[in-house]
UniProtKB/TrEMBL annotation:
Keywords: RNA-binding. Signal peptide: none annotated. The keyword Transferase does not apply. This is RNA-binding S4 domain-containing protein. InterPro entries: Nucleotide-bd_a/b_plait_sf, PSII_S4, RqcP2_RBD, S4_RNA-bd, S4_RNA-bd_sf. GO terms for molecular function: RNA binding. Residues 232-294 form the RNA-binding S4 domain. It comes from Urochloa decumbens. NCBIfam families: PS_II_S4. The keyword Transmembrane does not apply. CDD domains: S4 (cd00165).
């Protein structure tokens, strides 16, 4: 009975979640400012955001997503309503929020379910329409006996995506050791996941909704170090930060195991800047801190490793 009900629910949801989006649109729209100067203001902001993102991103997809956010804002400006994005990655959130700040009479809120959330949804609307923060994030507890079968972040994410949900509908995943994990999702998918998600790895699980106040999280622990390098290339800084040889790091880049600001890099010549986050599969993440040019023309770089 439960399986049949889940299948009936899954079919229309999968069609919805996997449906392609029209050109120039993103999967979740925005609402923006008043009429008249609105279109011109958004057009200017979109161009500025695109240029900024292209200069600061190792991947042009980030610039395209920010531009799509503002393009959608231009269309939504006539509706006087509030709209919400899917879950976005930190660099896209940053660029989009900076661009939206340039638009008059607009209120924007980024929410991920808890203060340190990385993946967030942005809600945007006219200041008269957004009188309170929208309820756009829900929390689920995925419980099971993981004592003998510990599961990773990737295991939980893979199990959720295996139900037909796309990555953009899922926020952060907070591991709880042998108890399971807590997951942030689009509220529209709560009932679907509760009825569909039955296993993570080999472990049978139960899925229940919990209040956001019940989330268990801690500020990330970090350790800082400094290195002096001749360049700011990702292979130089990441090899120093993760304490591995540059040859090994280059091999990991070639294998698609290295990301800069959550975007895969395939060339070791990508240049980093302060604030960039580098992640390596199986090794964790580090953030590029302060960069100071030495008298000899080299770079003294602070590297912040997430423990």
């Amino acid at each position: 009975m439960a399986a049949a009900a889940a299948l009936a629910l899954a079919s229309p949801l999968r069609r919805l979640l996997r449906a392609p989006h029209p050109r120039g649109a993103i999967s979740a729209p925005y609402y923006v400012i008043s009429r008249g100067r609105c279109s011109a203001a958004i057009a200017v902001a979109a161009a500025a955001a695109r240029d900024t993102a292209l200069k600061g991103s190792a991947d042009g997809n980030a610039a395209e997503e920010v531009r799509n956010v503002l393009d959608m804002a231009e269309r939504a400006s006539q509706r006087r309503d509030v709209f919400h994005t899917n879950f976005l990655t930190p660099p896209i959130i940053k660029e989009a929020m900076l661009a939206i700040e340039k638009l008059a009479d607009i209120k924007a809120v980024a929410q991920g379910g808890y203060p340190q959330a990385e993946r967030c949804r942005i809600s945007v609307g006219h200041s008269d329409s957004m009188t309170s923060n929208p309820d756009v994030v829900a929390a689920l507890s995925i419980s099971g006996n993981f004592r003998m079968e510990p599961c990773s972040h990737g295991d939980f994410l893979g199990a959720i995506l295996g139900t037909g949900i796309t990555r953009e509908k899922v926020g952060d995943i907070l591991l709880q050791g042998e108890r399971g994990a807590q997951v942030l999702v689009d509220p529209e998918l709560v009932d679907y996941l509760i009825s569909t998600l039955e296993k993570v790895g080999k472990v049978g699980v139960s899925c229940t909704q919990i209040p956001l106040l019940a989330l268990e999280y801690e500020p990330p622990r970090t350790k800082s170090s400094k290195t002096v390098e001749a360049s700011l290339r990702v292979d130089a800084l990441a090899s120093a930060g993760f304490k591995i040889s540059r040859t090994k790091l280059v091999s990991l880049i070639s294998g698609g195991d290295v990301r800069v600001n959550w975007t895969p890099v395939l060339k070791n010549g990508v240049t980093l800047k302060s604030g960039d986050v580098v992640s390596v599969s199986g090794m964790g993440r580090l953030k590029v801190g302060e960069i100071v040019t030495t008298r000899k023309g080299k770079y003294a770089v602070e590297l912040i490793r997430y423990l």
